[in-house]
Amino acid sequence: MTLALLSIAWMLGIVVADRLPVAGSILVGGALCGMVWAVLAWRVPPARLAGLLLLMATLGALRYQRHWLRQNRRVYGCCRLAVQSASRA
Fold this sequence. Notes:
There is one protein chain. The chain has one domain (about 1-89). It contains 4 helices and no strands. The chain has helices at about 1-20, 25-40, 45-70, 75-89. The longest helix is centred in the middle third of the chain and has 27 residues, at about 45-70.
């Protein structure tokens, strides 16, 4: 059951990253908070699970954003060059 919840949290993080433009620093901060929460609440299973769910959701979102940015790097590079050349004119 725990593995199913963690995988659902991972997929939920991917959906959130797809729908909302979330900054990478916020995702890294959320992952760190989830990890610290899970470590500090190690002996309280519901609290530990909540920390792990937060960790998995933010890691899923971060993984999705990195993959998407890597695939679209050429598109953004062309857009950046067009904006730079337009601003010089």
